From TrEMBL, chain A:
Family label: Belongs to the ABC transporter superfamily.
UniProt lineage: Bacteria, Bacillati, Actinomycetota, Actinomycetes, Micrococcales
Domain (ABC transporter): residue spans on this chain: 27-267
Key word Chaperone present: no
The species this protein was found in: Herbiconiux ginsengi
Protein name: Peptide/nickel transport system ATP-binding protein
Keywords: ATP-binding, Nucleotide-binding, Transport
TrEMBL record, chain B:
PANTHER family: DIPEPTIDE TRANSPORT ATP-BINDING PROTEIN DPPD, OLIGOPEPTIDE TRANSPORT ATP-BINDING PROTEIN APPD
UniProt cross-references to Pfam families, sorted A to Z: ABC_tran (PF00005)
Biological source species: Herbiconiux ginsengi
Keywords on record: ATP-binding, Cell membrane, Membrane, Nucleotide-binding, Transport
One of the record's GO cellular component terms: plasma membrane
Name recorded for this polypeptide: Peptide/nickel transport system ATP-binding protein
Family named by the database record: Belongs to the ABC transporter superfamily.
Recorded GO MF terms: ATP binding; ATP hydrolysis activity
InterPro entries membership: AAA+_ATPase (IPR003593), ABC_Ni/Peptide_Import (IPR050388), ABC_transporter-like_ATP-bd (IPR003439), ABC_transporter-like_CS (IPR017871), P-loop_NTPase (IPR027417)
From TrEMBL, chain C:
UniProt organism field: Herbiconiux ginsengi
Single GO molecular function: dipeptide transmembrane transporter activity
Gene Ontology annotations for the cellular component aspect, listed alphabetically: plasma membrane
UniProt family annotation: Belongs to the binding-protein-dependent transport system permease family.
Highest taxon above the source species: Bacteria
Primary location class: membrane
Membrane-spanning intervals of the chain: 21-46, 123-144, 156-177, 224-243, 282-305, 325-350
Alphabetical list of Pfam families matching this protein: BPD_transp_1, BPD_transp_1_N
Keyword Nucleotide-binding: no
Protein name, per record: Peptide/nickel transport system permease protein
ABC transmembrane type-1 domain location: 117-347
Automatic annotation (TrEMBL), chain E:
Biased amino acid composition, Basic and acidic residues: 1-13
Domain ABC transmembrane type-1: 112-300
Membrane-protein topology: Multi-pass membrane protein
InterPro entries associated with the record: BP-dependent_transpt_permease (IPR050366), MetI-like (IPR000515), MetI-like_sf (IPR035906)
Family designation: Belongs to the binding-protein-dependent transport system permease family.
Protein name per its UniProtKB record: Peptide/nickel transport system permease protein
Any one GO cellular component localisation term in the record: plasma membrane
Protein keywords: Cell membrane, Membrane, Transmembrane, Transmembrane helix, Transport
TM helices/strands, residue ranges: 48-74, 116-140, 161-184, 204-221, 233-258, 278-300
BP GO terms, sorted: transmembrane transport
UniProt xrefs under CDD domains: TM_PBP2 (cd06261)
Cellular location(s): Cell membrane
Length: 304, 277, 358, 503, 321
């Protein structure tokens, strides 16, 4: 037994990490690797670590297919991790299997991109929010009234007895958020929660999510490729490229002074609705190779 | 009305599109200037796509169009009426004089046909080109939209290209018969921003190149602001505002336009609500 | 707002050694082979569950009472061995292409099947070819004219096709066309005043043409007519409904709208774009339909006295001819798997995404 | 122009094709192994036998290839080849061929081997063969007329694996080529679908009426259509109803066949307490409406007066047949103590005899017995499965038939206690000593008159006390196109194809 | 990233869309195509299929009533052999008499009592067995799934009629055994359908959400999955009733089902073979089969249309009967 090595000692973080917005970390993830298939495997997430503090909103941005969803799913435990550890309030997060999730683990909830598939079409929305309430109760947390949650996400509380198909996409997404929050999670993972929504409701839903989770003191990992929204609601931002985090830091810092060439290209490519007729800068094909390089200085930045 | 050449390549007047029970588009006017990019913005479901389809006479079977859509002839003052046009007229217009690019490049190209075939079949049909000739022209087109290795690309299949490249190919397909009007229905919506930037540059170049007029349908006002010369905003099947770009973005006249802009981060109208930090 | 739904080509997860398509093909072949072994086991177990003594069935009344003859018979056909031994003997022989000797016909089962198979194939192929042509045309029309009168008529027709009991239809057609109107020829593959054409493929129509015997060809073709018609009706119903769905699905695709926006003639759009797009689901259902045709021939063959696999199966089953039953089960199982294998491999031909996965 | 024709039926009569529809039960064309009606039909045309029957009269044996001299004790039979006979390949026939053929049948232990049980075959000289038996065998001449005992070309058969014991492998050869001296030779044989014969060019008798004969496997209903429509010249398996519905374009020959359909009631009390009760058996005999069954079976059918069919020596006269008597039936039923128990009637579901379906007869009997209050439950099964129960004597009630193995009443002694069919009805040795002694007497032989009366006595006793109820001799209906002449039903080989010719 | 539409490598697996075996074949599962995604369960009465569906339902109900009322409305005992044999329709009998002098009309009416309930029973049992096996295979995956799917492969590779023939021969001919034989060959299509649906739903966001909220496997299956697969399964089932009737009567036709003297449509048709001139013996029971089957097919088709207007009738692995 003397040779026994604890899993913790194996997965020592390579560098010290300071939660930037203060507070204890609700969620810690280290060295996450996600692979799909065999012979050879497709490495979708390649050693990503992050921490989210209570009341903090961390955004994850990056191009399509860079591994954002895979990372999110690995964190919550929907996807199997090839390597890496995830801890929620210090407890290891297991992969979702046939066994039911422990009460402690219901402290992490997820909101998905597609509001249409997030709700069971055959059950009343009140019931489904009630699932969240029950999860909170099972954990010994405060209960609540589903109707009240509807009100909080800006819907008519009387709608509890309706079925999902009676709602628009934006409304469904609000219900999904309500269900997640009703479980009183300490950590909320949101995978592109607004990208399927109407342009006009995207911003308001994003803002709603931020306010509700901050209000509840929960940490939130917010995945989006919409950089302008990210800029408005995230405390910190992680930029992913091809399965790895290439840049991270306080949102404004990254925005003002992007260090990684990919981050720069990304920011430069956003067309601004200012009416100036400025064409966004299109990166050349050849630039893409450079985006794979690490820029150590870009990785963990607390100040400008 | 007496000038030799109509300044508008495409003129839509009082266009109504309706199903048996609903009115989708409730009578809109729109003039597409020659050699410019005309942006068509508006919330989802406001009828942007249907307007574009009406130009080609490709509305779903359950819908009918009324009003007038006139396509100016390249030379001379004459124009072709497209609403209620015969099949023969429409077949001659489609792909030949008016071409269209669809939203999702991954679905608008046939996955089982090589790119070369999809680029050349309407050229051969409309322009009567031979196989070799058409391929040569196709190669030049792919070069023009900057698809690498144009010759090799002709025998490849769509899935062998990236999303951005596929959209360029779709644009090349649209440009093949040298149309005067290009209807681009949200051509960048499916793309990453870095890829989108490249496609937007391409559209700009095409419009600047001369005779091509582009109707750019998008709900992304950022995109609109970047490339459109003229902007029309639709809501619930009606035009609420139509103005040159600068004017629309800096001094919108309509409340709806204003509220749209206000919801946008980064625009000059951005609200700094207390919910945002 | 940009939605990142760009589709990228599937990345290769192919093996170090083989092209992914080859691996896929190989895997398919191997699973098919495993299934064949499964089929042999099932047939073997099932046929040996059958009560009643094959000896009694195979030997005449008198002979079955003579213990010496019975013992001799059992030894000849290996029936005196334990079942497990019998099974492995069977498998071993199978590898040498030996399916045993039929206890009813006293011929090697392989020979019997080789003779019966072309007869069944002739109607099954005839039916499938006809059904595919008619089904694809009608299905495409129904999809194209969706909601119009012709669509509704085709819906009723194809559902009716699916609902007709073939055994009854066969009888009725036989009654009307042969018995009453004397338009169709009688049962069997060939009128008795014709001799079988020189054996090349075993399909009489083809062989007759190869031999240049036009009148034999016509006679064989006229005998094919009713059985093929009966089998076709069901498959046409099936295919029409399915092709309609598949085509509707494709008509909804952007690439079809794009093709129309290019101003291509309707015929080109249908042939080059729509049907090509629908080809893979159609192919699958054709494969399935062919499989069900093969076993569906039993009833039709019974009525038209068609000396095919179906008649052979029925004869073998009613005489408890174990080698015969196992042979038929194996043959049809293998054919079914083969058809599916071919269908699977054709996907590769039809879909560059499969073929060119790199 | 330039096309060849696959049609064989050309204008000149020599190659005229005769098409016969027959529901096949063909297992082989090898005479040494063949014992099914279709095989008899085929082999009768391919092979000649030492003795034979004239036309349809099977009660009298006549000379075939040979003439017969029989000892008075019916134990020694001397057969002398008459004239010169040649096989289809031109080889002359000798006594060696006869000896080989008969010894092969015995040695093969095939289906027809029983025909020559206990017979020793010896060659006397090149023209003469002597058959001897240990016990009197008055039936032997009739047996020798069976096509299974056709004479083979021993040279050819031996060359192709033929022996006179179980090592024989000539069947395969004989299924492709015939080696006989009959009027036809085998062209092609497909056990499942059709047999094609062509005229034997070396036949020493009159050339047969057709150049080519196609016997095709066709079910009864289709046969009717075929013969009416003209695509078949002869239909052999028509039911009475089908035959009577035929139009004028076809000539129908209807005769009762030699098959006897009978009902058996198990006498073994451990199988059934009900059917083993003699009063119950009696009641059933009296309850059945025989005339109704005959009419259901249709044209040509006759009630079987006893187990021996009417055309054979020893058959019961019609006056002795069983008749319906409902009052007696009810009385006997009451006497038997039957209380409405359900009695199972087993029968082969897939047998159709001369166009009569067993299920039809069974259903009719069920319905008739219901009239007097007997509940019958039908239990059909494929013959392959049901045969087992029948042979093991475990059927409560069974509906079966017996076709003569050879046209002699001694073949019917099996319907007595302790014998094959008797045992199938649970009738053990000694169960009815009176009947057993009548059977012994009938077996002894004697003059035709003596045999006739002894078999009559036996059958009368069987009808009164036996567990068997003879029901029908189904009609054999042969429909022939008007152009075909010479159609005569024969109980052994159905028809002699060689006797047919075109008008 | 979203995959191209309906990519599926194995056409007979109801596996969820996604790359498998390193290749993507754009495939549409014909079985699953029969099964619409369960959309809003609203019947569109305006659609043309609805009138057909209503007609079908009416005919089906008509036959079910006949089945129930046969003892009352049939003019004769279906087993009584008291009429002249082979009498043509007309004079006293609506549909003539058969070779034993039974009234064909009465037998056709009584026949409804035999075939329809058994077909329904067969479908219900197939659905139950198939749904249980499919759900377990789909939800628990791995070895369970592998074994279950290989078994269905086997059964499906085996020719339906011949398998049924052998089973019926092995167990003896009776209607119960015919149902058993048919059951053995017909449950796999439901197992596959259910498995495919469960597999698809298992990874769906709402099921995962439920699990994140602490649902047990049983609860997930019962609350989130089961209600969402009943629709497609019901549609397949309703389309399958016709197939079941065809299969059962086909087996009886071959003499492997109903025993005489039962008035069963398939065996009545087979009686006609022996009495070809008496066309009425076979034509009427055949028409009965046809109308019942077509009625159920209309209903199933309309049902499927109402649930998913795009898909069309298809019965995978079905048998030509
Ligand atoms: N179940 C899966 N099996 C195989 N490969 C997968 C699977 N899911 C994702 N991938 C692959 O992993 C890579 C990362 O995918 P992921 O969904 O995490 O990207 P993403 O950043 O969320 O993209 P998007 O912005 O489009 O949602 C992609 O290349 C994708 O093709
Ligand atoms: N096939 C159809 N039949 C009937 N109505 C339709 C059909 N297709 C679209 N519609 C309706 O037409 C209206 C206009 O649709 P359209 O696609 O033109 O909107 P859009 O402005 O392009 O929206 P988006 O930004 O979402 O693409 C919508 O209300 C839609 O529901
Ligand atoms: Mg994602
Ligand atoms: Mg649109
Ligand atoms: Ni010629």
């Amino acid at each position: 037994m003397s040779e026994h090595v604890t899993s913790e000692s194996v997965s020592q973080p390579e560098r010290e990490r300071e939660p930037l917005s203060g507070g204890r970390p609700v969620l810690e993830a280290e060295g996450i690797v996600v692979e799909y298939g065999r012979r050879p495997a497709l490495r979708a997430v390649d050693g990503v670590g992050l921490a989210v503090a209570a009341g903090e909103v961390v955004a994850l941005v990056g191009e399509s297919g860079c591994g954002k969803s895979s990372l999110a799913r690995a964190i919550v435990g929907i996807e199997k991790r090839k390597a890496g550890v995830v801890r929620l309030n210090g407890d290891d997060v297991p992969t979702l299997g046939l066994r039911r999730r422990s009460a402690a683990m219901t402290g992490m909830q997820m909101v998905f991109q597609d509001p249409n598939s997030s709700l069971n079409p055959r059950r009343r929305v009140g019931d489904q929010i009630g699932d969240g309430v029950r999860a909170a109760l099972a954990r010994g947390d405060r209960g609540s009234d589903p109707a009240d949650w509807l009100r909080r996400v800006g819907l008519d509380p009387a709608m509890v007895s309706r079925f999902p198909h009676e709602f628009s996409g934006g409304q469904k997404q609000r219900i999904a958020i309500a269900r997640a929050l009703a479980a009183r999670p300490g950590m909320l993972v949101a995978d592109e929660p607004i990208s399927a929504l109407d342009a006009s409701t995207q911003t308001s839903v994003a803002a709603l999510m931020r306010s509700l989770s901050v209000e509840a003191g929960a940490g939130m990992l917010f995945i989006s490729h919409d950089l302008s929204v990210v800029r408005r609601i995230a405390d910190r931002v992680l930029v992913m490229y091809q399965g790895r985090v290439v840049e991270s830091g306080v949102t404004e810092t990254v925005w003002q002074n992007p260090l990684h060439p990919y981050t720069r290209a990304l920011l430069a490519a956003i067309p601004l609705p200012d009416g100036a007729g400025r064409l966004p800068v299109a990166p050349a094909e050849t630039d893409r190779a450079a985006w794979l390089d690490d820029v150590p200085a870009a990785l963990e930045r607390t100040t400008v | 009305m007496s000038s030799s050449i109509d300044p508008a390549a495409l003129t839509i007047e009082g266009l109504r599109i309706a199903t048996r029970s609903h009115t989708i588009v409730g009578g809109i006017d729109l003039a597409l200037k020659r050699g410019g990019i005309h942006g068509l913005a508006g919330e989802s479901g406001s009828g942007k796509t249907m307007t574009a389809l009406a130009v080609l006479g490709l509305l779903p079977g359950s819908m009918t169009a009324s009003g007038s859509i006139r396509l100016a002839d390249a030379e001379g003052p004459a124009s072709t009426e497209l609403v209620g046009a015969s099949r023969g007229v429409l077949q001659g217009v489609r792909g030949r004089r008016v071409a269209m690019v669809f939203q999702d490049p991954s679905t608008s190209l046939h996955p089982q046909l090589p790119v070369g075939r999809q680029l050349t079949d309407h050229m051969r049909h409309h322009l009567g080109l031979g196989k070799a000739e058409a391929r040569q022209k196709a190669e030049a087109l792919l070069d023009r939209v900057r698809v690498p290795d144009a010759r090799g690309a002709l025998s490849k299949y769509p899935h062998q290209f990236s999303g951005g490249q596929r959209q360029r190919i779709a644009i090349a397909v649209a440009l093949a018969c040298d149309p005067t009007v290009l209807l681009a229905d949200e051509p960048t919506t499916a793309l990453d921003v870095t890829v989108q930037a490249g496609v937007l540059q391409l559209l700009r170049e095409l419009a600047d190149g001369g005779d091509l007029s582009i109707l750019l349908v998008t709900h992304d006002l950022g995109v609109m602001s970047a490339v459109a010369d003229e902007v029309t905003v639709m809501r619930q099947g009606l035009v609420v505002e139509s103005a040159p770009r600068e004017q629309l973005f800096t001094s919108p006249q309509d409340d709806y336009t204003r509220s749209l802009l206000a919801a946008l981060p980064g625009s000059s109208f951005e609200q700094t609500g207390e919910e945002a930090r | 707002m940009t939605r990142t739904t760009a589709v990228r080509p599937p990345r290769s997860r192919g093996g170090r050694t083989a092209h992914p398509f080859l691996r896929y093909a190989l895997r398919r072949v191997l699973t098919s082979l495993l299934l064949v072994v499964g089929v042999t086991l099932v047939t073997f177990v099932l046929t040996n569950l059958v009560p009643g003594d094959p000896v009694a069935a195979a030997l005449g009344q008198r002979a079955a009472e003579d213990p010496a003859i019975v013992a001799q018979f059992r030894a000849t056909y290996g029936l005196d061995q334990p079942l497990v031994v019998q099974y492995f003997t069977y498998l071993g022989n199978l590898l040498h292409g030996d399916l045993g000797v039929s206890t009813t016909t006293h011929n090697p089962v392989v020979d019997d099947l080789a003779k019966a198979l072309p007869a069944t194939l002739e109607i099954a192929l005839g039916a499938i070819v006809l059904s595919v042509i008619i089904g694809v045309v009608l299905g495409t029309i129904a999809a194209y004219r969706r909601g119009k009168a012709s669509d509704h008529v085709l819906r009723v027709v194809s559902l009716a096709g699916l609902s007709v009991p073939t055994f009854w239809l066969a009888l009725v057609l036989y009654y009307v066309f042969y018995f009453q109107l004397h338009i169709a020829p009688g049962s069997g593959r060939l009128s008795s005043d014709f001799s079988t054409p020189p054996h090349v493929t075993g399909l009489y129509t083809v062989d007759a043409l190869l031999a240049g015997q036009l009148d034999t060809f016509l006679d064989a073709a006229s005998h094919l007519f009713l059985p093929v018609l009966v089998l076709t009706l069901y498959t046409v119903g099936l295919l029409t409904r399915f092709v309609r769905t598949a085509v509707l699905e494709i008509l909804d695709q952007d690439y079809v709208r794009a093709a129309r926006a290019k101003g291509l003639p309707t015929r080109t759009v249908i042939w080059s774009y729509v049907l090509r797009g629908a080809s893979i689901p159609i192919l699958t259902v054709v494969g399935l339909a062919f499989g069900s045709l093969l076993s569906g021939t039993v009833l039709v063959e019974a009525i038209f006295a068609w000396p095919g696999i179906g008649s052979y199966a029925y004869q073998a089953a009613s005489h408890l001819d174990l080698p015969g039953i196992m042979g038929v089960g194996l043959l049809i199982g293998v054919m079914y798997l083969l058809v599916n294998l071919i269908v699977d491999l054709l996907y590769g031909v039809l879909d560059p995404r499969v073929r060119l996965a790199s | 122009a330039g096309c060849s024709s696959g049609r064989t039926d050309t204008a000149d009569g020599g190659t005229k094709t005769l098409t016969i529809d027959k529901a096949f039960d063909l297992k082989t064309a090898d005479p040494g192994r063949m014992y099914e009606p279709t095989g008899q039909l085929v082999d009768k045309a391919l092979y000649e036998t030492l003795l034979t029957f004239e036309g349809g009269d099977v009660s009298k044996v006549v000379d075939g290839l040979a003439s017969l001299e029989q000892s008075a004790d019916a134990k020694t039979f001397t057969l002398t080849l008459k004239g010169d006979h040649t096989f289809s390949d031109g080889t002359p026939m000798t006594a060696d061929d006869v000896v080989f053929s008969l010894q092969r049948v015995i040695g093969l232990k095939g289906n027809p081997s029983f025909l020559l049980d206990g017979v020793t075959v010896t060659k006397k000289d090149d023209k003469t063969v002597v058959l001897t038996t240990a016990t009197p065998t008055p039936a032997l001449p009739a047996i020798l007329a069976n096509p299974a005992l056709g004479i083979l070309n021993s040279t050819v058969v031996k060359e192709n694996g033929g022996t006179t014991d179980e090592t024989d492998t000539a069947e395969k050869f004989l299924n492709t080529t015939s080696a006989g001296s009959g009027p036809y030779v085998l062209d092609t044989l497909d056990l499942a679908s059709q047999v094609v014969l062509k005229a034997n060019e070396n036949y020493d008798g009159d050339a047969p009426g057709y150049g080519r004969v196609v016997i095709q496997n066709v079910e009864g209903a289709t046969q009717k259509i075929n013969v009416e429509g003209g695509s078949a010249d002869l239909a052999l398996d028509l039911s009475g109803t089908q035959a009577s519905a035929l139009g004028d374009s076809v000539a129908v020959t209807s005769d009762p066949s030699a098959n006897v359909i009978f009902l058996l009631l198990n006498q073994n009390p451990s199988v059934s307490a009900v059917t083993s009760n003699p009063d119950f058996v009696k009641a059933v005999k009296e309850a059945i409406d025989y005339d109704d069954l005959v009419s259901i079976a249709g044209t040509g059918t006759a009630q079987a007066a006893g187990v021996v069919p009417s055309m054979l020596l020893g058959a019961l006269p019609e006056s002795a047949k069983l008749t319906q008597d409902l009052d007696a039936a009810k009385a006997d039923l009451a006497k038997s103590g039957y209380a409405g128990e359900s009695v199972t009637l087993n029968f082969p579901s897939d047998i159709s005899l001369n166009g009569i379906d067993f299920p039809t007869i069974a259903q009719r009997i069920q319905s008739q017995l219901k009239e007097v209050g007997i509940t019958v439950e039908l239990a059909p099964a494929p013959v392959a499965t049901e045969l087992d129960a029948y042979r093991n004597g475990t059927e409560t009630m069974g509906l079966w038939y017996w076709g003569p193995d050879y046209p002699d009443p001694s073949d019917y002694l099996v319907f007595t206690p302790g014998n094959v069919v008797g045992l199938r009805s649970g009738w053990a040795e000694g169960a009815n000593p009176a009947i057993s002694s009548l059977a012994d007497a009938a077996a002894a032989g004697g003059s035709d008159e003596e045999r006739q009366s002894r078999f009559e006595d036996l059958q009368k006793a069987l009808n009164t006390d036996g567990p068997f109820i003879p029901l029908l001799q189904p009609g054999n209906n042969i429909a022939a196109a008007k152009s075909v002449t010479g159609v005569v039903y024969n109980a052994v080989w159905t028809i002699d194809i060689a006797a047919l010719s075109a008008k | 990233m979203s995959e191209p539409r309906s990519p599926r490598a194995d056409p007979r697996d109801g596996a969820p869309a996604g790359p498998r075996d390193g290749v993507q074949a754009g495939m549409l599962d014909p079985i699953e195509a029969a099964a619409p995604r369960w959309r809003r369960p609203r019947l569109r009465l305006g659609r043309w299929s609805a009138p057909l569906g209503i007609l079908g339902a009416a005919v089906a109900v008509f036959w079910i009533l006949i089945a129930l009322l046969a003892p009352v409305i049939a003019p004769h005992d279906p087993l009584a052999q008291d009429l002249p044999i082979l009498q043509a329709p007309g004079e006293g009998t609506l549909m003539g008499t058969d070779a034993l002098g039974r009234d064909v009309f009465s037998r056709v009416l009584w026949g409804a009592q035999v075939t329809i309930p058994l077909a329904l029973l067969l479908v219900v049992l197939s659905v139950l067995i198939g749904a249980v096996v499919g759900s377990v295979a789909g939800f628990f995956g791995r070895a369970v799934d592998e074994v279950a799917m290989r078994v269905t492969d086997l059964v499906m590779a085996f020719p339906t009629v011949i398998l049924a023939m052998v089973i019926a021969a092995a167990l003896g001919a009776s209607l119960v055994n015919a149902v058993l034989a048919a059951l053995i060959v017909s449950w796999p299509s439901y197992a596959r359908l259910t498995r495919g649906l469960v597999l698809g739903l298992r990874s769906s966001n709402y099921v995962v959400s439920g699990q994140l909220l602490g649902f047990s496997a049983v609860r997930s299956l019962g609350r989130d999955i089961a209600p969402n697969i009943v629709g497609p399964v019901l549609v397949l089932a309703s389309l399958d009733i016709g197939t079941a009737i065809l299969l059962l009567s086909g087996l009886s036709f071959l003499g492997l089902g109903a025993k005489p003297p039962t008035a069963e449509w398939g065996s009545m048709v087979s009686d006609a073979i022996k009495n070809f001139d008496a066309w009425w013996i076979g034509v009427f029971p055949g028409l009965a089969i046809l109308t019942v089957v077509i009625a159920f097919n209309f209903v199933g088709d309309a049902l499927r249309d109402a649930l998913d207007p795009k898909s069309a009738t298809i019965k995978g692995g079905g048998t030509t009967l």
